[in-house]
Design brief:
Order of helices and strands: HHEEEEEEEE
CATH architecture: Beta Barrel
Structural class: alpha+beta
Number of helices: 2
Radius of gyration: 20 Å
Oligomer: single chain
Number of domains: 1
CATH topology: Lipocalin
Length: 151
């Protein structure tokens, strides 16, 4: 049986629509794919979570044992605890498994432009850039999809 022109158009539309829905579902699930507990390049722990449709990250543990935000450029914030501090803010999805926003470094108290790119299901590259374009990257590894108790 020959397919009519309308049937061919309908079948083509359905195929394109299905592919578009599948692609959008993958991109929409992008935040979900990155949420969870991540081990930083130096052994710290950060929990990524959705925050208002964007991606944020809270510091759970540092590898240095640092307890206070002692390097903050604002003297009033130097006594605040860094455990639970949101260090990755307002990261907006900028592509498939890519986000751009800001990254706060507790080691020097500075906030940098940053990006995160998922390189696999359990590996991400985090990049922070200073003014002038000098950037540094580190690879982080996902260790859990769940929250850490108390965080």
């Amino acid at each position: 049986m020959r397919l009519s022109f309308i049937s061919k158009i309908t079948a083509t539309f359905f195929l394109i629509f299905s592919c578009t829905v599948a692609a959008n579902a993958t991109n929409a699930g992008g935040i979900k794919s990155v949420t969870g507990l991540w081990k930083t390049h130096d052994g710290g722990l950060v929990r990524f979570y959705a925050c208002g449709g964007q991606l944020c990250g809270k510091l759970i543990r540092t590898s240095s044992g640092q307890k206070k935000d002692k390097h903050n450029s604002n003297p009033k914030l130097r006594n605040r605890p860094i455990r639970g501090l949101t260090i990755i803010r307002s990261n907006k999805q900028s592509g498939a498994h890519k986000w751009h926003g800001t990254v706060y470094n507790v080691k020097d108290g500075q906030t940098y432009r940053g990006s995160l790119k998922m390189t696999s299901a359990r590996k991400a590259e985090l990049t922070g850039c200073m003014a002038g374009g000098l950037c540094q990257s580190a690879t982080w590894h996902k260790i859990s999809n769940t929250r850490v108790a108390g965080n």
